[in-house]
Design brief:
The strands form three sheets. Strands 1, 2, 3, 4, 5, 6, 7, 8 and 9 form a nine-stranded mixed beta sheet that branches. This protein has 16 helices and 18 strands. The protein is α/β, with parallel strands linked by helices and 477 residues long. The protein folds into two domains: 270 residues, Spore Coat Polysaccharide Biosynthesis Protein SpsA, Chain A; 186 residues, Alpha-Beta Complex (Spore Coat Polysaccharide Biosynthesis Protein SpsA, Chain A).
């Protein structure tokens, strides 16, 4: 259901320098809070972003009395609504985004009060790059200030300022305002002050309408935005105020704990990062690591060791095996995380599948964070050494922070073909790891940073065809 558009005549008058300013749609979820909405509308009217390049979309989550926007607004505004089927802020935001017309989407919670320069600061990176995912600075003020005659856009007195969450401030400082982000950085992206380019939002599939209840939907979206190549940034100049304490300081401690537990349990099956599910769980849904091990050239025993080593390094991975011969080897790999790939076509052998259609949330979730093509089975090089799952997980995070999206693991230089000849300089490619981010960034015109590294430098080596299986499993070889 869509309400009449307000303010279209004023918004249509675009001329001069304003034409170069990006069009932004501010998407606001709403439920039975007319006073909050009135203050937010006033704060938007005070923005230094040109009103002619601004659209407000209020997405009502089934309020008994639909929100009414004032006439004569300097920007275009529209109300869309869904039926009341519980707390569905994620679905409301998705609905609002579908009605938005701007090429930049600025999500603001209904109780936020953005400072006059908020949109200008928040939109700068998305205007320059379709990959940009910007989280602003949510600050907190004493609710009593709202009763004192204070209005949005006016300075907030020092005495009315409530503490900011220290863990967020520390995370932004540690990561250079998210310049050194990784797949665990979703925790520092909050939908109350989230601004994204429409293109990367669509690639990620948008807010998931299936979320019901408080919390988690912004982290889940942020993690998908990371998976599709979103470039996270914290913009401290994009300040918006909330007339309340941070969640960690509200209400009863036991209830807060229960809410956070529900959120964590819900996200474990949706977010691949170790901060959401640890190292040991092997869950349905999105994968951190998906791999293929090729047995064609190495033999069955070497392939079995390679699969075992890979699963020890990434216990939650799924591993396909091609070229396996004997029934005994197949029986040894009868693990629910392993499937035997018979008759695999060339398309399935590619490093990554094609990027799915924009807006296909399920397909986004179906592509692992890291796809690993093991062309020659590998194992730790030192006798008796075994992979360390925590160390392997940390290695992937360090790659992500460094912006590496493809790794080629190399063997030793090839030996001379004839006696007396010098060794050839080429190093065979033993394995290729490709981050899902490379897939979507390539579609949007971005380049991937490739790291070519010898396996020996990583402490790994090819598994010998005549590997001693008993020694491998027994830990002495």
């Amino acid at each position: 259901m869509t309400a009449p558009v307000v303010g279209r005549e004023a918004a249509a008058e675009t001329a001069g320098p304003e034409a170069s300013v990006p069009e932004v749609s501010v998407v606001v979820p709403h439920y039975r809070a007319p006073a909050d909405l009135e203050r937010l509308v006033a704060a938007l009217a005070a923005q230094d972003h040109p009103a002619s390049r601004l659209q407000l979309v209020v997405a009502d989550d089934g309020s008994p009395e639909p929100p009414v926007l004032p006439a004569g607004l300097p920007f275009e505004a529209v109300v869309v609504a869904q039926e009341d089927h519980g707390f569905r802020a994620s679905a409301a935001r998705a609905l609002g985004a579908s009605a938005a017309e701007g090429r930049i989407l600025a999500f603001l919670d209904g109780d936020m009060l953005p400072e006059p320069g908020y949109l200008t600061a928040a939109c700068a990176a998305p205007a320059a790059s379709v990959d940009a995912v910007v989280v602003g600075r949510r600050r907190h003020l004493d609710p009593a200030l709202l009763e004192s005659g204070w209005r949005p856009g006016e300075p907030v007195p020092e005495a009315a300022r409530l503490p900011e969450p220290a863990w967020l401030a520390e995370a932004y400082q540690r990561s250079g305002d998210l310049a050194a982000a990784d797949s665990t950085s979703y925790r520092y992206v909050i939908s109350a002050v989230l601004t994204v380019a429409r293109e990367v939002y669509a690639d990620a599939g948008g807010f998931d309408p299936a979320f019901v209840g408080y919390g988690g939907e912004d982290w889940e979206l942020a993690h998908r935005l990371w998976r599709v190549g979103g470039a996270f940034r914290h913009q401290p100049a994009a300040v918006a105020w909330q007339a309340d304490e941070d969640f960690g300081g509200r209400g009863d401690a036991a209830e807060r704990t229960a809410v956070k537990q529900r959120e964590a349990l819900r996200l474990a099956a949706r977010i691949t990062a170790t901060t959401a599910r640890g190292h040991g769980l092997s869950l349905p849904g999105p994968l951190r690591v998906g791999a293929r091990v090729r047995a064609e050239a190495s033999g069955d025993a070497a392939a079995v060791v390679g699969v075992d080593a890979l699963l020890a390094a990434a216990p939650g991975a799924r591993v396909g095996v091609t070229g396996l011969g004997s029934g005994a080897a197949r029986a040894a790999l009868a693990d629910p995380r392993v499937w035997i790939m018979d008759g695999v076509g060339e398309a399935a052998r590619a490093d990554l599948p094609p990027a799915p259609a924009r807006g296909d949330l399920g397909a986004v979730r179906g592509i692992p964070d890291w796809s690993c093509d093991v062309r020659t089975p590998l194992r730790p090089a030192a006798p008796g050494a075994r992979p360390d799952a925590a160390r392997a997980a940390d290695w992937l995070l360090r790659l992500e922070r460094a912006g590496v999206e493809r790794v080629e693991v190399l063997g030793e230089p090839q030996a001379a073909e004839e006696p007396g000849e010098a060794a050839r300089g080429e190093r065979p490619v033993l394995a290729v790891l490709t981050c899902s981010r490379a897939l979507w960034r390539s579609r949007r015109g971005g380049d991937s940073r490739v790291w070519r590294v010898p396996a020996a430098r990583l402490g790994w080596a090819p598994v010998a065809r005549d590997v001693d299986l008993e020694a491998w499993w027994g830990g002495w070889g």
